[in-house]
Amino acid sequence: MTDAASAVTATAMNARQTDAELALWAKSALGHDFADPSLVLRAVTHSSMGPDNYQRLEFLGDRVLGCVVATFLYQQHGEDEGGLTARLHALVEGSANASVARALGVPGHVIMERKAKVQGLHLSDNVLGDVAEALVAALYIDGGWAVAEAFVRREWGRLATEGSGYLANPKSRLQEWALKHRRGMPVYIVIDRQGPDHAPRFTIEASVRGDEPATGEGASKQEAEKAAALALLERLDP
To answer: Which of the ends of the chain has fewer CB neighbours closer than 10 A, N or C?
Structure first.
C-alpha cells in the first residue's frame, strides 16, 4: 500500500471512530439521537481537512437559524422592524453563535488540520459560530424542522433572555443605530495586521453609509471590530 493510500485509510478509520464518539456527544449535548451520525462528523469538520467539511451545512443552518430566531422574536417582542432586526442580528452573529457552541462543548470536538488547531483556530468565534450553524442544519436534515426548531429555541432562546448583554456589545449597538437610521449594515475592513501568528494585532475600520469610518485595534478581529464600532458610536451618538 502506498503512503498516500495508507494516509487515506488511517483518516477513514479515525473518522469512523470519531463518528461513534460524536454520536454519543450529540445525543447528550444536542438532545438528538442521529440516524445518520456522519452529519455530526461533517458539521464539526473544518475546511482544512478537505472538501467534506461544514461549509455546505453552515449555509443551510444559517437560514434555518435565522428563521427560527426571527419567529420567536416576532412572538415575544412588539417592536418595529428596526428593533426586531437589531435583535435578530445580535442573536445570530458570530460571537452569539460561538457562545452557544462553547456551552455545548464544541471546541473539544472540532476536527481540523493539526497546525491550525495548535494555533487555536478551533477556539475562534468564526469557526465556532460556523460549527453552531452547521449543527443546526445537521439536526434539520436528520430530524426535521421540529427537532431543529426545538434546539434553536432552547439554545438561542437562552441568549435572548440575556439579550441585554448582546445588545450592549458595541457591534450590536452600532448595527441597531445603523438600521434605525436606515444606513444599512455596518461594514468592517481589516486595514492592518501585525505580529506573529500566536500574538497578532489587528487594526479594523468600521463604517456606515453616509459617515466617515472609525478604526479600532485588538488582539483578534472580533476585539478590533468591537473597538472600531465603539469609536464610531461615540462619534455618531455621543
So the answer is: C
